[in-house]
Amino acid sequence: MSYKVEHNGKSVELPDFKDLPVGIIRKARNTDPNELMWVVLEEVLDAKQLAVIDTLSMEQFAEAMKGWTQGAPLGESLQSSKS
User: Fold this and answer.
1) Which of 7, 14, 47, 78 sits 20 to 30 Å CA-CA off 56?
2) Is residue 81 part of a domain?
3) Residue 80 exposed, middle or buried by CB count within 10 Å (0-12, 13-18, 19+)
């Protein structure tokens, strides 16, 4: 199942966070924590989709990322984030 971000009549489908290839997280493992989400997004979205994400306010972006990840920090499984 994917997660949809909608803004200004446009939408972006993000792959289900728990189905992300671990290689994306591995590539980002030494990245500054403030940059991790951007690395992941740039791996899973194309330029047109990123342009939609770029129009979100910080509040909208934070809400969308929390919804997508279900609150799980990068590098931590959804199961362990709920315990």
Assistant:
1) 78
2) no
3) exposed
